[in-house]
Design a protein that fits this description.
Jelly Rolls, 5-stranded antiparallel sheet, 4-stranded antiparallel sheet, 30 strands
Amino acid sequence: MGSLQEMQKILRKKDDRIKELERLLRVKDDELMELRTKLDKFQSVLPTQPMAISGAARKRLRAQGISAEPQASRTVQEITKQQFKKYVKSRSAKECIKMAILDNDFMKNLELSQIQEIVEIMYPVEHPKDSCIIKEGDVGSLVYVIEEGKVEVTKEGKFLCTMGRSKVFGELAILYNCTRTATVKAITHTKLWAIDRPCFQAIMMKTGLIRQAEYVELLKNVPTFKDLPEEALNKIADILEEAYYDEGECIISQGARGDTFYIINKGKCNVTQRGSGHGDSKFTKTLNRGDFFGERALHGEDHIEPLKSEDIRQASVIASDKGGVSCLLIDRESFLQVASTVDGLSAKGDADRDNIRNAVDSEFADIKVSDLKIVATLGVGGFGRVELVNIRGDNVRTFALKQLKKKHIVETRQQEHIMSEKRIMSEARCDFIVRCYRTFKDSKYLYMLLEVCLGGELWTILRDRGSFDDNTTRFYTACCLEALSYLHSKGIVYRDLKPENILLDNRGYAKLVDFGFAKKIGFGRKTWTFCGTPEYVAPEIILNKGHDLSADYWSLGILMYELLTGSPPFSGADPMKTYNLILKGMDMVEFPRKMTRNAINMIKRLCKDNPTERLGYQKNGIKDIQKHKWFEGFNWDGLRKKTVTPPIIPSVRSPTDTANFDDYPEDDEPPPPDDHTGWDREF
């Protein structure tokens, strides 16, 4: 009997010890969370340098492109009318959500108005102790904020951390349709707030579209701008800066020189003027929202004749609203850059409308899929395979046949992107873009018969060589720039520039391939769908601000960096970490010493956080890139005429030689199910 009591006593001691250890573990977890928060804050102000390990690891696998569901084209009126249900919250809950967002590396970059709307429409979710909130590998669309309780995060069964009040998790799911990268389990009863991807993206889109529409309406009231085409007004609206002035603050002073134009966006101002005798200033009028001043400064002369009347302010303007005044500003240089492109915008649009081509080359009009014979496999991807084929009876020529599973396209909701790829590639006629000769379809697959480039992927060559020198990088960058110049002249944004999508032809010239993310958006307009490859996407795509042709210039700068170093400048352990590094900007990147000063300068100018400041998007467009010092002495005419000797000339012994491609296993997957929904009727 005594031994039983002793055993019970020992067990009670062990239970107490376990409870004490669990308490200490919770304390240590809290300390670890605090240290991680401090570490994140330190890292946010320290320069980031790509780690050799992460770069090398990335190069073992091809970078995969990512795309959200295409955003439906909607008018500003439709967006404005969209209402979201607001959920009642205590002041404490609102503060908790706001604090969590502002503490999150990604969401802290949102505008305060967007954060406020997210706070209002997040809805409550509760999970009991030991329940699974997020399961690794599942598809997710919700982001959560913890108000009460604690959660445990694990990856592949390994403990990562615990999180408590005012922490955000699951934020990758509000960017695009993806699988969860970790499991999150409630270790106490947990009260959460959640918002889904469609709702979050609608808020982001609404903010940008409404602001642009408001700015354009204000610009139309100004004589200088009222006759400009919509595309030009949109572009000017993009470069307007907003400035705030307190009551009594002087915005411009009579007699001062200035080159900035102002539109009042909020509040009112008093205008005062002194007579020629320089006496006291007299009130002349009040300016309200929509009124403007400083218009003559936009047309002023250069500093060669600094005393021109256009440069001298004729009156003083003083903020006179108790709530302060908000003005929209544009300076002379920015205005002239945009104005110089106005004629070009109209000309490009007209030329594009006149150049719609027949999608099918007459030579291939009667060919059927059954006429094609597979020789070898050139590539394998999520949507299907790319095969080297020849036409039966023709052993001299070979082609690439891209085979896409219709079921996979429908499941990932990429129908619109695939149809766009078909249209753009079928119409493209550029020596630096892979030709699409013909498309086919059956009940299971879509097919694209493409020009074959047997020199292989630039990615494979970069992987094997490690990095390229300046001359080699310059040549491939120039080839890509020629392709982008052609696409942009037709209002097409490419959105997936990377070594994996650049092929070499038999002579060693580079060509762009894979137009799954390309889209015709026109000029001065934006698109909103998140798509691209994580290491290459521009900040405005991550923040869902709407993006345009300038997103390709960002990617061009990233491509330059990767070709020169062997790995991209922004590369995290997972996509979300990569995006957070991108949002810190190129100024936080430490460039290798071996990189030349001109190369660094060009990369930094291509990768400006503000899209309107990027090289290529300025007054002279792509010519500004071509005339940059890094390209000094480059033979652009020789490149276009194909008289320049490429830095790498691939060995291609015959039309069926696939030695420059990796080996792929035979396709042993069962055929996908049929799809008869008819979405591909025009493919």
